[in-house]
Predict the 3D structure of the following.
Amino acid sequence: MDPLLSGALTVGIFAGLWAYGSTLINIPAWTAFLGWAVFYAAGGRLDGLRKGVPSCLIGVFWAWAAVSVWSKVAPQNVPVLCVIVSVISFILVYESRIEALFSFVPGSFVGASTYFAAISSGAGAPQVVGGLICGLAIGFVQQNVAIALTKKKKKEKQEVNKVSLKEQHKEVERESITVA
């Protein structure tokens, strides 16, 4: 199967399954779609997981910390919130110096943004973390299924080409015999 077609087909199937499954486990579907996007943006395959999981989780942690500090220090005080957000944003970038864990800065911002958006709609940290992790995992499984479908088609095509080459060789031999 063509790689783009297998990717599009598996994304469509997995997205539909997740949209339904997320309702059964009380996780907002969109949180996983963001995790899925981080998986691909971080390079997919094992790199997508290795970079995506810790970066998303640390982003959620810092967003939770920001909300916790703000709600205790100066709830409803927008200037204080702006300072806290500035500090957290600085941390999200600066922590990338710990390359083994937090090198993928966009994932950290997605994690933080997902938390901020989710709490405004009534979801909590467990749903955010669960959704992001599910999305990263779905991306990994979906990508591997798409790759398997692509390889299967390539293998079938190679087999057809082998047969075709053998038939062409036999045809050339037959033509050589009839000419001689």
